[in-house]
Amino acid sequence: MGEVLPRAERRRRTEGRILDAARSLFAEVGYERATIRAVAGAAGVDPALVMQYFGSKQKLFQQAVRVTPADGGEPGADEVVEHVLGTLGVKMGELPQSSLAMLRSMLTHPEAAASARRLLGEQIDRVAGSLSGDDARLRASLMTLVMLGVTVGHQLLELEELRGVPPEEVARLLRPGLRALAGPEAP
Amino acid sequence: MGEVLPRAERRRRTEGRILDAARSLFAEVGYERATIRAVAGAAGVDPALVMQYFGSKQKLFQQAVRVTPADGGEPGADEVVEHVLGTLGVKMGELPQSSLAMLRSMLTHPEAAASARRLLGEQIDRVAGSLSGDDARLRASLMTLVMLGVTVGHQLLELEELRGVPPEEVARLLRPGLRALAGPEAP
DNA sequence: TCGTTGAGTCAACGCCTGTTGAGCGAATGG
DNA sequence: CCATTCGCTCAACAGGCGTTGACTCAACGA
């Protein structure tokens, strides 16, 4: 039953299991409460191995929340709104564990905060690029923060008011407000 | 110089100093990183005294984030929007330390999460009460979460994009979107 | 086949945490 | 004035944490 694997492959898989366990735990309970021992336990491995592979808890966290920049689309005038709706979590079940891990710790762990600022900054840049006006950047920030608030309430706080609400409905309700923030450029 | 105070008064003041120190630290670094030793140090007091007065770190936190329910206004049809704008932090420098302490830890500390859910729930109830339609509660939730997102971005993450922006401007930009969420009842 | 590599474990370290109990000394009240 | 209360400190405990070094043993390469 248990197949015998070559060393390299075995290593890869174990490292992957540790990383998955780390992502789950960081996403569920945040940086401080996710202990290396718990991560190791969830991955079926000795705590010392986690250290040997990743060097420190800090570096493990960095690896766990490292996110593929993905995206890169240059959205038109006001598909920005759709872009914003799609990006930060209104496709609501779909946020990757790595993002949740980062968001969960962003208020209490300095490095997670830095990551969050960087990620939100990039998102703001993208949105602001499709807006015009001298307060474009401010409006882009608010659009992004609107999505952040909804995401936090839904995914992290798990407010019962949002449980089971179809993403399209939330998107439908949010759209007019986001359009208003996007500005008067579209006819 | 140092005036000699009666025992009761001395006790009251020390307790107050501890509570203030606790609020500051909880607000700055969150529940886990705010150690009893650090709180005691900031209050100029022995750690054991904190325990003696408050029983446990948990109870100290409860006291520190206990918020006077205040408010209670029954706003009319669409002053709801103004109410929402005023309540959760667009009077942006003005959020009390106790609220910041709760918000800072709400994603990582179970009890802070519970407090946050309760507080947001009450806010949602108030807002939903002034709305109509069968999705009133959902719309009220989104209005509240919009404000939460902006507050988190501004007060907790301290995004540079919002630094020094006058509250009225944020309110002005947010208003149309919130109005849209409040619904079509006002002419 | 045999020495070497490297995946994985074990037991321990030092540190910091929340929490406790004994004690000191000044304000209190009869 | 004396016994008592009580604000406050000191020193220590037990437990959990990140981290480390020595070790085991199966896969590897020549």
TrEMBL record, chains A, B:
Residues 35-54 bind DNA. InterPro entries: Homeodomain-like_sf, HTH-type_TetR-like_transc_reg, HTH_TetR, Tet_transcr_reg_TetR-rel_C_sf, TetR_C_16. GO terms for molecular function: DNA-binding transcription factor activity; transcription cis-regulatory region binding. It holds the Pfam family TetR_N. The keyword Transcription regulation does not apply. Keywords: DNA-binding. Residues 12-72 form the HTH tetR-type domain. This is TetR/AcrR family transcriptional regulator. It comes from Nonomuraea terrae. The lineage of its organism: Bacteria, Bacillati, Actinomycetota, Actinomycetes, Streptosporangiales.
